[in-house]
Every structure is written in structure tokens, then in C-alpha cells.
């Protein structure tokens, strides 16, 4: 294998513990990587403790969703997702469509849900005006997207634990700190403000380019952006990079609220997250 492709083995563990017992719970997991032109899923499995019958469907955004219910008392819910994924570099023509051509195309109607602001991606008009004043022309969508990412990186520092999953793009902008989810929400908001459809992508990121084949690293659940410029093009605001063989796609949506790895409802005492462990091995 070269840097044009690689095979990654991923193990993702998450879940909840309960004070006392949860008498029952109803859950959805979005933890299975997608087949796409960027990647081929060689195998994937989901293990649930306590054991539960699983059912799969694809949601509106074409993400694989695993549903399962538990109807016996349990103090802990653990979900272990494992997958082997062959990833590829995809060259893109960033100048395929100009902003003027995009505005005149039927794509804006087709991707209307990726243009409307959501709770986490709403930002004040002052921020959008500042962007337009800084760079009046965004005819080259690809160059504009890269400039936006550079601006976001200049204004928002990546600081682990600095925000909550409910944090909005405006809150992150004002405090000047966030994590990958937040940089993604801010970038999406700015792209949509220009009339460019943009969507949230969640997945995994192999963060050590020097890791040897067979070496296990603590990986990351990660988030980045895809914007439409005649085709969907990925860009990573956290790393200021294109999407490469270190990225594994799991879910897509308008914002984080469409793609949480695990969510559900339960009957019982207070709960707390088990924390998240992501282990990645480069197989080839």
C-alpha cells in the first residue's frame, strides 16, 4: 500500500452506566462506516452488552443506523463497533463549478437542507458580513472554502474539552475555542451563508502518519465538512487539509444532531457516559 490507499482496523467503544438499574432502553447507533468512492468496508460488526437483537436501516441522509432495545434491568450499556476499511485518496477538480453557476443550478433546490441554518450552525449576520468584507469574491468555491477554513483556524483554537455537544457555532466563535465538531459547525455556517450547500461528516481519523503497519494508536472520533461544488468535496477544518486515507466516513447530516454515535431513551435512574475509546491499527 502507498499513501494513495491504506487499510485501517477500527475499534470504537462507548456506552452508559446507570445509578441503579435502567429497566429498559431504546437505542440507535451510528457507528458503521459507509461504502463510498472514498472507502471500501471490508468487514463491520456491532457488539452490544447486554446482548440485544439488532436491526439496521438507512436514515434520510443515507447513514447506516443500528437499532436495539433492552427490556431487562441493566446497570451498564456498552457498544463495541469494529470495522476494517480500505481508504483511498480522491483527486478533485476544485474549480468544477463557480459560485454564480451553482446559484443558477437546480442543485440549490436539491440540497436545500444543507443550506438552511440549524440550531448548532446559526451565526450572527455580523460574522457573515465580516467574511464578505474580508474576501468579497468567492467565485472559486474550492479556494473560498480553503480561505474560510484558514480564517476559522485563525479565530478558533482547538482546545479539548472546551465545549459541550450542545455548543453552537456562535458560542464557539465568541469564546474562540472549540473541538473538531465546533470548527466543523462554524465552517458549515460560513459556507451556507455564501449559498454553498455544506454538510457535517462524522467518522474516524488516524492521527499518526508515521505509525508502522500493525501499530495500534489511540484514534479519534472526528468531524469534518463536505461542500458542494459540482460534486461533494471534503475538507477538514481541524487539520486544514483535504480528506485523505487517514479519514474514515461513518455518518453525514446537517449538523452533529443528525449523526450522534449512540443515542436513546431509557427508564431508570440517572446515567453517565462511559467515555469513548477509539483504537486504530493500520493493517496495510
Explain the overall architecture.
- With about 280 residues, the chain is α+β, with helices and mostly antiparallel strands.
- It folds into two domains: about 5-90 and about 260-280, Immunoglobulin-like; about 100-210 and about 220-260, Roll (C8orf32 fold), CATH 3.10.620.30.
- About 20% of the residues lie in helices and about 40% in strands.
- The protein has helices at about 100-105, 105-110, 125-135, 140-155, 170-175, 180-195; strands at about 5-30, 40-50, 55-60, 65-70, 75-90, 155-160, 175-180, 200-205, 215-220, 220-230, 230-235, 240, 245-255, 260-270, 270-275, 275-280.
- The strands form three sheets. Strands 1, 2, 3, 4, 5, 9, 14, 15 and 16 form a nine-stranded antiparallel β-sheet that branches.
- A hairpin with a 3-residue loop joins strand 10 and strand 11 (about 230-235).
- It is globular and about 60 Å long.
- The N and C termini lie close together (about 5 Å).
Estimated radius of gyration: 19 Å
Q: What would you say the CATH architecture of the largest domain is?
A: Roll
In the predicted model, the low-confidence regions spanning at least 5 consecutive residues are none
Distance between the termini: 6 Å
Our count of helices gives 6
Percentage of β-strand residues: 35-45%
Category by helix and strand content: alpha+beta
Q: What is the residue-averaged pLDDT?
A: 94
CATH topology of the largest domain: C8orf32 fold
Q: What is the number of strand segments? A: 16
The sequence of SSEs as H and E is EEEEEHHHHEHEHEEEEEEEEE
Amino acid at each position: 500500500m502507498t499513501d494513495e490507499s491504506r487499510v485501517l482496523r477500527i475499534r470504537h467503544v462507548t456506552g452508559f452506566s446507570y445509578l441503579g438499574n435502567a429497566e429498559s432502553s431504546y437505542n440507535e447507533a451510528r457507528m458503521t462506516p459507509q461504502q463510498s468512492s472514498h472507502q471500501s468496508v471490508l468487514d463491520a460488526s456491532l457488539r452490544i452488552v447486554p446482548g440485544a437483537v439488532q436491526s439496521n436501516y438507512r436514515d434520510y441522509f443515507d447513514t447506516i443506523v443500528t437499532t436495539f432495545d433492552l427490556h431487562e434491568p441493566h446497570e451498564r450499556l456498552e457498544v463495541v463497533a469494529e470495522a476494517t476499511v480500505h481508504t483511498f485518496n480522491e483527486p478533485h477538480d476544485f474549480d468544477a463549478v463557480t459560485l454564480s453557476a451553482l446559484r443558477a443550478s437546480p442543485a440549490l433546490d436539491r440540497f436545500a437542507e444543507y443550506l438552511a441554518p440549524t440550531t448548532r450552525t446559526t451565526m450572527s449576520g455580523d460574522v457573515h458580513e465580516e467574511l464578505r468584507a474580508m474576501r468579497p469574491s468567492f467565485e472559486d468555491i474550492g479556494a473560498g472554502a480553503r480561505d474560510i477554513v484558514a480564517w476559522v483556524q485563525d479565530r478558533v483554537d482547538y482546545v479539548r474539552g472546551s465545549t459541550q455537544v450542545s455548543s453552537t457555532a456562535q458560542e464557539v466563535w465568541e469564546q474562540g475555542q472549540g473541538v473538531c465538531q465546533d470548527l466543523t459547525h462554524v465552517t458549515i455556517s460560513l459556507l451556507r451563508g455564501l449559498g454553498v450547500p455544506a454538510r457535517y461528516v462524522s467518522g474516524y481519523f488516524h492521527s499518526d502518519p508515521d505509525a508502522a503497519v500493525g501499530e495500534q494508536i489511540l484514534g479519534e472520533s472526528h468531524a469534518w465538512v463536505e461542500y458542494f461544488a459540482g460534486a461533494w468535496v471534503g475538507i477538514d477544518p481541524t487539520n486544514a487539509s483535504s480528506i485523505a486515507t487517514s479519514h474514515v466516513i461513518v455518518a453525514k447530516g446537517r449538523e452533529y444532531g443528525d449523526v450522534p454515535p449512540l443515542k436513546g431513551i431509557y427508564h431508570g435512574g440517572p446515567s453517565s457516559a462511559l467515555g469513548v475509546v477509539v483504537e486504530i491499527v493500520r493493517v496495510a
